[in-house]
Amino acid sequence: MARMIDLSHTLEHGMHTYPDLPGPEVSDFLTHAETAHRYAPGVGFHFAKIEMLGQTGTWVDAPLHRYENGKDVADLPLERLADLDACLVRPDLSRTRAIEPEVFAGLDLRGRAVLIATGWSRHWRSDVYAAGGHPFLTRDTAELLLESGAALVGVDSLNVDDTSDPERPVHSLLLANDMPIAEHMTNFDALPEGPFRFHAVPVKAKGMSTFPVRAFAVAP
After folding, report:
1. Residue 173: which domain range?
2. Does the predicted model carry a pTM greater than 0.90?
């Protein structure tokens, strides 16, 4: 029997994911009581609404996030988002925040979702999480991931880039080559060291450059 491992943060009213960005507003549009008159006795339905940025909770970036004429999330192929063979990497971050290419030495990354466990998600919804100082990928690492033919890159951190670098080289390189980026994941400690499959599919929304996903792994 396969087991499913949830790698997503829960999206909740008023939560904050990224500095200076508003949290989602979740509310009732119609309650069970307000719809009860339309149906048989004891029958009612709930209609909820949500107003939020695409950058909310656990999300996937499409090329449009970085490039004006890039693909939006509706244009991302499912082959880049679902049922991907996955590779989990646990870099040693005891001396540096920078994740360099040597972390991936000897790994076959072609066609795989490359998930990088930083441990930063332990700070989720705290002042520490968004204050900076998070682990990040370097430009050289982004180039290696492209050369290796990875399908998707995902982190359990605030950002794949060093947010003190306004050039954002990792986003720029990966999204220029149509490689989706999954950020703000969690629960990587539950992932096996052996093989597993990865899924992170956003709603097929035109014009959205980023959108929340229910990221999860399927392990033997």
Report:
1. 3-10+54-219
2. yes
